[in-house]
Structures are given as structure tokens and as C-alpha cells.
Amino acid sequence: MAPPHRECDPGTRHSGQLPPPPLMIPEILLPFAGPPPRSDSAQLRTHALAWAQRHGLIGRRGAHRLRTTALLDLGMALCGSASTAQAEILVCWYLWALTLDDRIDDGPWAENGALDRFIAAVQAVTENDGVDASGEVSRFEDPMLVVLVDDLWPQTQCLGGEHWRHRLVQHLLQHLRAQATLVRVRETDNALTLAEYMPLRRDSFGALFFFDLIDGAEALDPYAHPTDTGWWNTLREHAADIIAWTNDIHSIAKDIVCGERFNLVSILADTAGMDWPAAIESAHQRVNTAVTQFTAVAAKHAEHRSGAATNPDRLRQVVRGAGDWHKSVSRYHLHAAESMARDNRQVDLELTPPTLKSRQFEIDPYPLYERLRTTLPIAYDEPTDVWLVSRHVDVKAALTHPGASNNNYTWQIGPLLGHTIVTMDGCEHAQHRALLSPSFRSKALVALEASVISVTTDLLARMHGRPQVDLIGDFTAALPVRVMAHALGLPAETREEVEQLKRWCAIGFAYMGNYRQDPALLTGGLSNRDSFYDFIQPYIDARRAEPTDDLISLLLAARIDDQPLSESFVRSYCAILMTAGSETSHGALANLIVNLLNEPGVKEAVLADPGLMDSALAETLRRNPPLQLVLREAREQLHLPSGTIPAGATLACLIGSANRDPDQFADPDTFNMSRTEQATSHFAFGAGRHFCLGSMLARMEITTSARMLLQTFPNLRWAPGFKPIERGFLNRCPERLEVVL
């Protein structure tokens, strides 16, 4: 029998298959009293959020989300009777672990050994106080490691004695290693048996580690008497299983939609050939059995307890608090808007939208787009707190709606660059756009074309005589960086200069699109900005003293309301122009080259008629846009053709979906240069007031360089055995283009 969940997975289901039945989530009744409310809950929440923002674990948007939802409530439930000072440490640990879990679950960060390296660093910090084998103190760039070594671990290790610290560290490492094992299994697409999954699940959830933290925060040692060790460990394991399995049951719909196979319900369905209702009921029975076993162990040793440290009520309160949290927190109930009012127990997978945090959006978003357009054209994505807009008619309406603003960029890029043209609306935006527009049109465009030809000629000359070339590293990524650097008046001639500019642009672009709110991008973006600003400052100073005809000189001479632009404005404009003018152009050029070499007859047609390159690019931008989405904020309620976006909401206009909407484009997945509607109907450059300022430059740059590439190397073809693979979501294109010239 085929695994039931693969047939029912909305993300992989083929059209024509029967929709899965609604899933009924059982009422999990835990016969335990919950933790008493704490009078300092507001103080704990405020402290944790300020701490996380100060150390770069969360940004503005993440802090708002944690402040206005129940996501931190489980952290409060863990605090027990700890003093406020000790409870603050515990809630910070909870937020640290929550952030790490999201990084592991939400995308590719943990893969290719990255999580193993992270674990090694955690081990060095917690076992050796961050001292490496040479006796030197290790320094880290990842903010989660920085805060661990500088703040969290120094505070934590004072909570208990040596034996307690050893137990705490071992359970922390067990927790992280179990997660790393699941990542490796996911990477290799292997299956797990039930016997393999059960201990991994207990450790991957991390309950045993938090039980140790609670002991330290409450200054209690349940292991002070050796006779208590065995039964107390058994009791804790039952409690950990109840928490983990309850989580699995409540998150089954989310896991199915996101393609996450490591869930007790899914594994029961796979290994025992059960249908969904039977698998859910079997998982529920396992929870009930664990509750019974917990109760039996607690009763058996009731007369032999050594004091408050081994009082089972401490564990009961945590288990009940976790159960209530899993049942109520929106994180595990991904219903579409129209089904939100229903009882959370019944989950209709047809009304459970995919989330932008799913790594499937990085791998192949197009099946997800099809499902959204067909079933959920306006859908709320709870994990990112964003409304997904997927149909062409709705994306067009949203991008051109007067009530849709760019205010979302105040958290996307505001902390990095401040208030710039990207965050502006209305008259202010119009003034700044009018200032920059002439630099990308008419005579200025002619001068930029000369730069494009010059840079392309140089890059192509460097390829001559080489048997094999990676066009990403040697052509598509370098070209727009050098052209925009030349326009600004910055040096970009040597490989070192170009590589440095490419790194700055890539990190800045990733910061702007950090919808997953990865902490490494939050802090890395800020240090990256400072490095770029240090680099350009001498050129700003030189142009102020002696202006030339470059963009920096233009910005320094500009006036808005008869006032010059501030120094911070000039620097931020340089960063925006450098980043926006390179990353998406690189992706579009790479995707165009793929279509030229992959699509039958296209390369030959363009070689015979170079004017067709414009059509080839237009069709590439429609079918394979590098930028897959843009965000907007609804300053008022937005009534779109397929539904309504509430006022104040953030909406994701899914360009990659709209550009393949069959209601707008016939046979949309097919590359067809003869389309008459694609040049003006796709959204690769956006639409409305914020239509891409550099669209004319981008088109000219990409078509000119692609023509010259084919004219210079008409026999261009893929290297033997190479196949280009699109990856990514913010800038979707191949990572390599290995060709024979």
C-alpha cells in the first residue's frame, strides 16, 4: 500500500486526484493541573524580546509577532516557581531554542553540514567555555553563538553545580544532534522506522534539556539522592514523550502541507499502512498510554519521594502547559481565512495553505502556486504573518491599488538603510523617483550601454582559450556589478574588487528578502552595510570636492524641496542602486541563458535574428522571473477580485505564480517567444507606482550581453553531464552554469 500521506499531500498532489478528507484532531485531555499564572509574565516577555533584539536574534517584525501572539506563552509555563531573575534566563533559552528550531525547519540553513558545525561550536562553548584546542577563545559570527558565549551560557552555568551542568549540556547536545540526524535523513530522502523515530523525537523536541533548566532555575536537585535517579528519569521520559507526541498530533496538518515526514502520525501511517484517521487515533492512544505510565510511576514512588525536587506536580504542570499551548497557538493551525472560525479540531487540508517558510518554495514553488491559484487565491500564511496573493488578476490589482503601500520595507530594509526611496509612498516617492529616473533613460542609457558593451567585451575575452566555464561566476554575476559600479563611479576592475562588491550586494539583497527572519542575515546585513559604507565614503568625499558625471556626483548635487540630500541618504542610495541593479539582473541573465540553451531551436533562432533576444528575455521574465515575490502593506482594507486583505496586513504578491496563471497566459509552463501578451503582462519588474526604476537598463544590459555571448561563442553548449537547476526563492536561478565554449 502506498504511504497515505503522500497521496494526500496538497503540495505534491496531481490535478485529478480526489481531495483528502478533513482531518479530525482529537481532544487530548491531560489529567494534570496547569502551571499557576505568574504575576511577572509581562516583565518576562518584555525582557526576552529586548534581549533577543539587542543580540540580533529577532528583528522588528519578529518582535512584533512575539509580542502580539501566544508564541512565548510556553516559555512562561516552563518557569514554575523560579524567581524573576532565574525565570528571565529560562525564557531567553526558550526564545533561543525557538529561533533555532525555526532556522532548522524553515529552509536550507541547516543542511550540508551547517548544523553539525553549529553543534560543535555549542559544545565548545558549553563544555570548554569557548576555548578551542589551542587554548584560544573561539569567536563566532553567528549571532546565536555570540549570544550563547557572551551572555546566555555565563548566566546559565551559575544556576547549578558541576553534575547539574554536565547533565544539562549532555541533554542540550542530545537535542541538537537529534535534530541534525533528522536533517541528514531529510537530505537523503530516507525513511525512518517507528523504533528509530521514537528516541529521536524525544531528544529533538528538547524537553529533557528544559527539565534540567527548570531544576536549575528553581534551585532543586532531583538527583541529590541516588535512589531517585532511575524512577525520576523514567518519569521525565514519559513527560517528554507526552509533550512531543502531542506536538506531532497538533502539527500534522502543517507537516503534511510542508512536506515534513518526521511526525508520529505520518510514520504510523507509512510503517503500518494506516489511513489518516487510524494513524491519528493510534498516536492519540500512545499519548494516553504515556499519561497512564507517568501516573503509575508517580504513584508507585509517592511514599518514597525525597522532597520538592521529585514532586511529579512539577512535571505535570509543564506537560499540561505544553499541551494547552500546542492546542491553542496559531503556529500549528494553518487554516485559510474562511475556515479560521471553525473548531481547530477539524482540519481541511484543502483549506490549509502552504507556507513561505516551506523549503519546497526554494526547490520548486510552481506546484504550490498552482494549488494556491486554484484553491486558495487569497490565503493567510500564519508562520510568516503574510497574506498570499497568487492569481494574475489579484497581483495586478494589489500592485496598482492606491491603498497598498511600501510601508513593509520599514522592517524589511529600514533597520539597514533607514528611510529611502524603497520605503516611500505618495508625493515623497514621486519626488525621489523623478530625481533618479533621468539617470536610467535617454542619453544616460546610451552611456550605460557603452559601459555594458565594454564590460561584456572584457568578460568574454577572459573566457577565450578555456575549455570549460561557469557562466555564473565568470559572466552573469560579474557583469551587472561592474556596470552599476561604473555608473556610480566605484572601482570594479580587479577580480578582488568585483568579488567584494558581489558579496556586499548578495548579503544586502538577502537581508531585504529575509522573510524567514534568519538571525545571521539580520546581524550580517548590518555589518555588511558598515563595510560597504566604509568603502564608498572616500569616493563620496572626492566627488563632493570635485564632481564628475557619475551617479554619486548626481546625488550630491540633487535637491529635494530646495534641500540637498543628507549624507545618509547618499550612502543608502548607493547601496540600493548597487544591490538592486545587480542581483536580479544576474538572475534574469542566468535564466535567459538556460532557456537559450535548453529550449529547442531558441539559440538558433536568436543567432539568425538577434532582434529575437528581446522576445526571449520577455518570455524568460514571464516564465522564470528571478524575483518570485514582492511584499506590500495594506493601509486600508483591500478588495481584490478573489478576496479581501484586511487593513494593516502584509501581503505577498507572488510574481512567479501570477506569471504562470493560465487565465492570463495560454499553456503558461511552456517557453514560447511568439507570445504577444507577455512583454506587458508579466510582473518581473512589478507594476504601478513602484514599477522597477531600472527596468530599461536591465533589459538593455541583459539582451546586449546575451547577444554578444552567442555571437562570440556560437557553439556554446552545456558541459558534458551538466544540467542547470533553478534554486532559491528571493532570487531564483541556477547556482552554476557549466558550459563548453
From TrEMBL:
It holds the Pfam family p450. Residues 1-20 are annotated as: Disordered. Gene3D superfamilies: Cytochrome P450, Farnesyl Diphosphate Synthase. One of its GO terms (molecular function) is heme binding. InterPro entries: Cyt_P450, Cyt_P450_B, Cyt_P450_CS, Cyt_P450_sf, Isoprenoid_synthase_dom_sf, Terpene_cyclase-like_2. Residues 1-12 have a biased composition (Basic and acidic residues). Transmembrane segments: none annotated. This is Putative cytochrome P450 hydroxylase. It comes from Pseudomonas synxantha.
